[in-house]
Amino acid sequence: MIRKKTNKKYTINIILMLGIVLFSLITSPMVLHAYENYNLALEKGTQIMEISDYDEQAWNATVNVTSNPNDWFRGDADRVGAKSKITVLEWGQYDVSTYGMFRGLMIPRDYLPTYKAIYDYGYNYTYIMNIFSNYYFVWYKSFDFRSFTLNGFSNFSDYTTHNSMILLYPENVSKLLDDYNEFATIVNNDTVLQSLNYSLPILSGDDFLWHFVLERFTIGNPIIDYLTTLIGTLECNNVSIQGNTLIIKRNGIKNYSAEATYNDQGNLETFLLKNSEGYIFYKITSYYPKITALIIVGICGLSILLLITFFLFYKKKYRK
Amino acid sequence: MKHQQRRNIRGELEMKKLINFYLNLKPIFHTIIFEVKLNIRKFYIFSGFTIIFLILTNYLPYVTDMRRLPTTQYNFYVSALSFFLLILVFASSLFFSGIICSDYSKKTGLNLIPMIKKSHLFIGKYITYSILVIGIVSVQYISMALLEYYFYGGPLLNTICISYGFAILYVLALASLISFISSFSSSELPVIIVVNGLILIGFNIIDPIMMLSFGVEPIYSFMYLYNLIQFILNPDFSTMLRYDGWWLFPTIEQAVISLLSYGIGFFILAFILYKKRQF
User: Fold this and answer.
1) Which of A149, A203, B153, B220 could form a disulfide with A289 if both were Cys (CB 3.0 to 4.6 A apart)?
2) Mind telling me how many Å the CA of B53 is from chain A's nearest CA?
3) In chain A, which residue's Cα lies nearest the Cα of B67?
């Protein structure tokens, strides 16, 4: 009797412990994001992007004769079939100084060497933080990146880890943009830097959003709300939203539009360029290899199940 | 005519030789089939454990955001293989521990030996257990490759094939050693304890002493040899430092020689001891 009671107590204790663990596991994400308007729906793993369409003539006639997709997306982005790979390794949440935001989010990639020179000249962390002392809440995404290539990704361990930032509150982007433009104006008015031919671009809301799309920055969830807030805050004139897609009107040799569609994880899923007649002359699509892996596992599991069923059926029949 | 007759006689002789060879091998095949049927459950259990262990160590921590995904596919494999040594040693010791002693402890040998040669029985058992343990290794490598594709996409590291080859060689060496120890024992349990103690604890104590006190590279050690299975996965293996105040892994030649010596040497010794041992 005593033993039975002890066993019962033991079982209840185990159930209680398991319940507590399960409850904490289920509720912990809710608690973390309870005060936020947006959440991060990223998943660890690889996204592969592929150039599925590129009409060079249409590009030259519409966008620019001297430029090509490599200037925007790096690597062999001007070759149909070229693939790029992004492997998300980790993400987290922290607050970043204005200096960090300038470096990580605002300054276009082509201007980073210039920014380094300007930094060395004296417009460094201390200088920036003396004028713009704000901190911003962001999610950071740590990832490995491979540029577009036709040759397949090498197996050698030449990965370099990158970090990108995702604003927790996209409404803060206007303050950030204003601060950046103020900083760029100060730098551009410096006579010494002028003589050295160093300058930083002044960005409009549309310019920033274009840079944001090309750099494949991730966005928060719900996607539509996040995009709407971002566009509204940036006061973009040439941008509209259709579902999870950003439609950006651009002007090159002729007018054209860029459509950037985001998936449920907040990553850029497809990117395409259309001329005024609706002809798609450049398109990037993407997929996740994990889906293929899951299909393989599913097929294997199903085959094993079928085999077991077949053997059981055969055994039963044979015994009869 | 004479030539024709000679040819026919020769043909018949060769045919007879082939039939004799087949008849000689037949008991081995029968042993293999019998042993597979007898031990297939162990194989299923260990395969299941391998998959569950892999999911617990290399899938759930990443999906539930408990751990950062390793930067490279190589690091992912190393992390997946670090615990596999435990399964490998346990599986090998459970399969091979009774290869010799079980026939004596359970007296099954008395019933079997009149019908089958000792050597056939031993070879049949050795082949069966090796196939089953290599099967478990294959389950581990296939699952690892699938998980690698799941997280990193293609292409898979081609060094996985070399690592798999060394894992097979490792299993055979381990099998021979366990068979040898089994020939001294009266039951399976002491063999399991000795093998696990030697590989998982013994070498961990002996190796640092040999390396630090005597400056000897421990190519005799199963722990040290296992490092090659992990390190060889690195695409930059050829340029990797082997010694960093501490021996990290053996060269390919050293590992091959060492594993083959273990595999062949202990197999022959176990075979001789089994043949000489009386029921």
Assistant:
1) B153
2) 17
3) A90
Q: Which of residues 210-249 of B touch A (CB under 8 A)?
A: 234-236
Specify the pLDDT at position A161: 76
Going from the C-alpha of A193 to that of each of A120, A127, A189, the distances in angstroms are 12, 16, 8
- pLDDT at residue B176, as a whole number: 94
Span B175-179, mean pLDDT? 94
**Strand-pair category, A135-149 with A161-167:** antiparallel
- Residues from chain B that touch A290, judged by Cβ atoms under 8 A, are 150-151
Contact B155 A87 (CB under 8 A): no
User: Each residue of B204-225: pLDDT tens digit?
Assistant: 999 999 888 888 889 999 999 9
Distance CA A204, CA A95 (A): 25
**Cross-chain CB nearest to A157 (options B74, B150, B153):** B74
Among B88, B46, B66, which Cα is nearest to B230's? B88
Q: What SS3 state is found at A154?
A: coil
d(CA A318, CA B265): 47
Q: pTM of the prediction?
A: 0.83
> Any CB–CB contact under 8 A between A50 and chain B?
no
Give the closest residue to A98 by CA, choosing from A127, A118, A119, A121: A127
Neighbour tally for A196: CB within 10 Å: 13
